[in-house]
Specification:
single chain, alpha+beta, 6 helices, 13 strands
């Protein structure tokens, strides 16, 4: 097998074609695991100088999280069998992975990101329903203040810039999962109150049943 692989690696065209096919197989498996439109620039792969027999591709998964993927240009079975410390391990953003481990991590990461966006939409809808004068475009992600398991969003209202860190675990009425508003943890209802307090605004009770004055606005 070693001799045949070395012969295979001696053909740069075969290596390049196989690396592209392997990336395509990875994208297909990620899609099967529920990732939304994982993407790689298959036509922009370059030979990796530090890992002979491998190609480096611009790679995106989840959506909006651009990085690079170093893929071995050897038969797919060898890549799938390789350990993270093996010769044919995948390299994602400089970190070596076994195939199955990378698929599992990216699928989990993608699912968490989709939960974050769902949480954000739910939060924005509820803030608007409670009387905060914002539009969805007034809530923007701050990538520099975000991590692997949450995304910090800035809510722009009445000249205030209110940071809210939204997690990759479902939030909502009756749930204990917390969000961070201006650095302080709050579950759902308390988070809403904290946002209105930061904006100096009066919050309506659930779905417009009457006004409730935020602590900050009532003390002013």
């Amino acid at each position: 097998m070693t001799d045949s692989i070395e012969e295979f690696l001696a053909d740069d065209v075969k290596v390049e074609e196989q690396a592209r096919a392997n990336v395509a197989a990875l994208l297909a498996e990620l899609t099967e695991r529920g990732c939304e439109e994982p993407f790689a620039y298959l036509d922009h792969g370059n030979a990796d100088d530090e890992r002979p027999g491998c190609m480096c591709f611009p790679f995106e998964c989840p959506q909006g999280y651009e990085g690079d993927l170093v893929m071995p240009g050897v038969p797919l079975a060898l890549v799938k069998e390789a350990d993270a410390d093996g010769r044919w391990a995948l390299l994602h953003n400089g970190v070596p992975y076994a195939w199955a481990d990378l698929v599992a991590e990216l699928a989990s990461f993608d699912a968490a990101r989709r939960t974050i966006w769902s949480n954000r939409d739910l939060l924005v809808d509820e803030l608007i329903a409670r009387g905060l004068p914002i539009r969805p475009d007034d809530v923007t992600a701050d990538a520099d203040a975000s991590g692997d398991t949450w995304v910090t969003h800035i809510i722009a209202v009445d000249g205030h810039q209110i940071p809210v860190s939204v997690p990759g675990t479902t939030v909502g009425p009756g749930l204990s999962q917390e969000m961070y508003v201006e650095g302080c943890p709050h579950a759902w209802e308390a988070a809403l109150e904290a946002i209105f307090a930061a904006a100096g605004r009066t919050m309506l009770n659930p779905r417009g049943s009457g006004p409730r004055t935020s602590p900050r606005s009532s003390s002013s």
